[in-house]
Design goal:
34% of the residues lie in helices and 23% in strands. With 145 residues, it is an alpha+beta fold. A 6-stranded mixed β-sheet has the order 3-4-6-5-7-8. 30% of the residues are buried. Bound molecules: zinc ion. Zinc ion binds next to strand 4.
Protein backbone atom coordinates (compact mmCIF):
# COMPACT_ATOMS: atom_id res chain seq x y z
CA UNK A 1 0.00 0.00 0.00
CA UNK A 2 1.37 3.35 -1.09
CA UNK A 3 1.21 6.11 1.57
CA UNK A 4 2.81 8.92 -0.47
CA UNK A 5 4.82 9.03 -3.74
CA UNK A 6 7.98 7.56 -2.19
CA UNK A 7 6.71 5.77 0.93
CA UNK A 8 4.78 2.57 1.33
CA UNK A 9 3.20 0.86 4.30
CA UNK A 10 5.64 -2.04 4.17
CA UNK A 11 8.71 0.03 5.01
CA UNK A 12 6.82 1.75 7.84
CA UNK A 13 5.92 -1.53 9.60
CA UNK A 14 8.81 -3.86 8.80
CA UNK A 15 10.80 -5.06 11.79
CA UNK A 16 13.47 -7.73 12.02
CA UNK A 17 12.60 -8.17 15.70
CA UNK A 18 8.94 -8.79 14.85
CA UNK A 19 9.92 -11.32 12.16
CA UNK A 20 12.39 -13.15 14.36
CA UNK A 21 9.86 -13.42 17.17
CA UNK A 22 6.84 -14.21 15.03
CA UNK A 23 5.04 -11.05 16.11
CA UNK A 24 2.21 -9.62 14.05
CA UNK A 25 3.13 -5.96 13.50
CA UNK A 26 0.01 -5.02 11.53
CA UNK A 27 -1.37 -1.58 12.38
CA UNK A 28 -5.05 -0.71 12.72
CA UNK A 29 -6.67 1.52 10.09
CA UNK A 30 -6.41 4.44 12.50
CA UNK A 31 -2.68 3.80 12.93
CA UNK A 32 -2.27 3.56 9.14
CA UNK A 33 -3.92 6.98 8.85
CA UNK A 34 -1.37 8.34 11.32
CA UNK A 35 1.52 6.80 9.36
CA UNK A 36 0.12 8.43 6.24
CA UNK A 37 0.00 11.84 7.94
CA UNK A 38 3.60 11.37 9.11
CA UNK A 39 4.68 10.61 5.53
CA UNK A 40 2.64 13.44 4.00
CA UNK A 41 3.75 16.13 6.44
CA UNK A 42 7.32 15.17 7.33
CA UNK A 43 8.94 12.26 5.52
CA UNK A 44 7.86 12.96 1.94
CA UNK A 45 8.72 16.69 2.20
CA UNK A 46 12.21 15.66 3.45
CA UNK A 47 12.53 13.16 0.60
CA UNK A 48 11.63 15.95 -1.82
CA UNK A 49 13.86 18.60 -0.22
CA UNK A 50 16.96 16.36 -0.34
CA UNK A 51 15.96 14.32 -3.38
CA UNK A 52 17.43 11.32 -1.56
CA UNK A 53 15.89 8.16 -0.10
CA UNK A 54 15.21 7.94 3.62
CA UNK A 55 16.04 4.68 5.38
CA UNK A 56 13.32 3.97 7.93
CA UNK A 57 14.97 2.02 10.75
CA UNK A 58 11.82 1.81 12.90
CA UNK A 59 8.30 2.99 12.15
CA UNK A 60 5.15 1.44 13.58
CA UNK A 61 5.53 -0.74 16.69
CA UNK A 62 2.69 -2.90 17.94
CA UNK A 63 2.49 -3.10 21.73
CA UNK A 64 4.12 -6.54 21.68
CA UNK A 65 6.97 -5.31 19.52
CA UNK A 66 7.42 -2.25 21.75
CA UNK A 67 7.85 -4.61 24.71
CA UNK A 68 10.53 -6.59 22.90
CA UNK A 69 12.56 -3.57 21.79
CA UNK A 70 12.35 -1.95 25.23
CA UNK A 71 10.11 0.88 24.09
CA UNK A 72 7.17 2.18 26.14
CA UNK A 73 3.67 1.36 24.87
CA UNK A 74 2.91 5.06 25.17
CA UNK A 75 5.62 5.72 22.54
CA UNK A 76 4.37 7.54 19.46
CA UNK A 77 5.75 4.61 17.46
CA UNK A 78 2.80 2.58 18.84
CA UNK A 79 0.20 4.93 17.33
CA UNK A 80 1.95 5.25 13.97
CA UNK A 81 2.84 8.89 14.66
CA UNK A 82 6.63 8.43 14.83
CA UNK A 83 9.52 6.97 12.86
CA UNK A 84 13.28 6.65 13.23
CA UNK A 85 15.33 7.17 10.07
CA UNK A 86 18.55 8.31 8.49
CA UNK A 87 19.50 9.75 5.13
CA UNK A 88 22.75 7.80 4.80
CA UNK A 89 24.73 10.29 2.71
CA UNK A 90 23.73 13.40 4.71
CA UNK A 91 24.84 14.37 8.21
CA UNK A 92 21.89 13.69 10.53
CA UNK A 93 22.45 16.90 12.46
CA UNK A 94 21.88 18.87 9.25
CA UNK A 95 18.71 16.91 8.51
CA UNK A 96 17.55 17.44 12.09
CA UNK A 97 18.04 21.23 11.80
CA UNK A 98 16.23 21.20 8.48
CA UNK A 99 13.21 19.54 10.12
CA UNK A 100 13.18 22.06 12.97
CA UNK A 101 13.40 25.03 10.63
CA UNK A 102 11.01 23.88 7.92
CA UNK A 103 8.52 21.20 8.90
CA UNK A 104 5.41 21.01 11.16
CA UNK A 105 6.81 18.28 13.45
CA UNK A 106 5.45 17.34 16.87
CA UNK A 107 8.70 16.01 18.36
CA UNK A 108 12.14 15.63 16.79
CA UNK A 109 15.00 13.89 18.61
CA UNK A 110 18.58 13.64 17.40
CA UNK A 111 19.55 10.30 18.95
CA UNK A 112 23.06 9.10 19.81
CA UNK A 113 24.63 11.51 17.35
CA UNK A 114 28.38 11.84 16.97
CA UNK A 115 30.16 13.02 13.85
CA UNK A 116 31.60 9.53 13.47
CA UNK A 117 28.46 7.43 13.77
CA UNK A 118 25.78 9.94 12.83
CA UNK A 119 23.15 8.37 15.08
CA UNK A 120 19.60 8.62 13.81
CA UNK A 121 16.57 10.91 13.90
CA UNK A 122 13.29 10.22 15.66
CA UNK A 123 10.45 12.37 14.37
CA UNK A 124 6.73 12.46 15.06
CA UNK A 125 3.77 14.25 13.59
CA UNK A 126 0.35 15.10 15.01
CA UNK A 127 -1.79 18.02 13.83
CA UNK A 128 -0.87 21.23 15.69
CA UNK A 129 2.16 19.53 17.23
CA UNK A 130 4.39 20.75 20.04
CA UNK A 131 7.46 21.49 17.95
CA UNK A 132 9.62 19.93 20.67
CA UNK A 133 13.29 19.43 19.69
CA UNK A 134 15.56 17.24 21.84
CA UNK A 135 18.80 15.33 21.77
CA UNK A 136 19.24 11.93 23.37
CA UNK A 137 22.32 9.96 24.35
CA UNK A 138 23.31 7.52 27.06
CA UNK A 139 22.88 10.28 29.63
CA UNK A 140 19.28 10.92 28.62
CA UNK A 141 17.28 13.67 26.92
CA UNK A 142 18.30 17.31 26.61
CA UNK A 143 16.53 20.25 25.03
CA UNK A 144 18.05 21.21 21.68
CA UNK A 145 19.73 24.61 21.88
ZN1 LIG B 1 11.87 6.59 17.72
Amino acid sequence: MKLTDNFNLKEMIQSQTALRNGIDNTPSSEHIENLKLLCENILQPLRDDYNLPLVITSGYRSKKLAGLVGSKITSQHCSGCAADFTIPSVDNKKVFKHIIENLPFDQAILEYYTEDNGGWIHVSYVPNGRGQALTKDKEGYKAWQ
